[in-house]
Specification:
It is a single chain. The protein is an alpha/beta fold. The protein has a single domain, classed as Rossmann fold (3-Layer(aba) Sandwich). Helix content is about 30%, strand content about 25%. The protein contains seven helices and eleven strands. The chain is globular, with a radius of gyration of 17 Å.
């Protein structure tokens, strides 16, 4: 299986984070936020046997949390890290985990379709937003929903980001900021759908990491006391894009 440079770099960073932190029993606030929004589209959370796919599932922490809310769902996870998938499978042997990249799906012509597809914190890794969104939508059945969580720009400006440590010579990717307008343009060219944007407010302060300056933290601004920012001086507006396929 071939992976892009964006895939491979993010793979290395994610392994360093997820394999050294156990967050199964302390779910992130945006996990709760995603779960709350999924619940709006589920009539009976206890009995529903809907299918859900998590793209970029890492060690499966989001799936682990969602299973406490939607125990009847059939869960699947995709990630490119073999190490993290083994960790996830050990924790949840009844869940199907596969080593796959969202960039591979067009070539593989996957016809598997799900009721819900989630991609959390992944879209900003890739320069080819159109290809990623096209592949995501191809995985959702008619009447299903896509949930894309990450940072987006309310202004009609798209940013392809490269950065490096002052002590390093290698330029890195992973912090692209795509506009809501561009996402909507791409999606409406692909399919008939309704698109909704839901702002995420973490509601408490996050301290800056002493070791990883690109790990976001919060500062107080005129608009909010909990504005996400990173070491590249990027203001990060966290949102959930909900695509309902009609």
């Amino acid at each position: 299986m071939l992976f892009s440079e964006e895939d491979k770099y993010r793979h290395k960073i994610d392994e360093e984070i997820y394999l050294n932190e156990n967050r199964y029993d302390t779910p992130k606030e945006h996990f709760k936020f995603i779960g709350k929004n999924i619940a709006r589209f589920v009539e009976n959370k206890e009995e529903s046997n809907a299918s859900l796919l998590d793209i970029g599932c890492a060690t499966g922490e989001l799936i682990y949390y969602l299973r406490t809310i939607f125990p009847g769902f059939n869960y699947t996870g995709f990630d490119i890290s073999e190490k993290m998938l083994k960790h996830a499978s050990f924790k949840m042997p009844e869940v199907n985990f596969y080593q796959r990249s969202i960039l591979d799906l067009v070539e593989e012509k996957s016809d598997a379709q799900y009721d819900f597809v989630i991609m959390s914190g992944v879209l900003s890794i890739f320069d080819d937003t159109e290809r990623v969104l096209e592949n995501l939508i191809s995985l959702v059945r008619k009447g299903g929903n896509v949930f894309v969580y990450g940072f987006f720009n309310d202004f009609p400006v798209d940013v392809i980001m490269r950065y490096k440590s002052s002590n390093d010579s290698e330029w890195k990717s992973g912090w692209n900021i795509i506009s809501t307008k561009y996402c909507e343009k791409i999606i409406r060219n692909i399919c008939l759908s309704n698109i909704e944007w839901v702002d995420f407010n973490i509601g408490f302060s996050l301290k800056r990491s002493k070791d990883d300056f690109m790990r976001s933290w919060t500062i107080a601004t005129e608009d909010t006391p909990y504005q996400h920012i990173n070491g590249a001086c990027q203001i990060l507006n966290m949102k959930l894009m909900i695509i309902s396929i009609t």
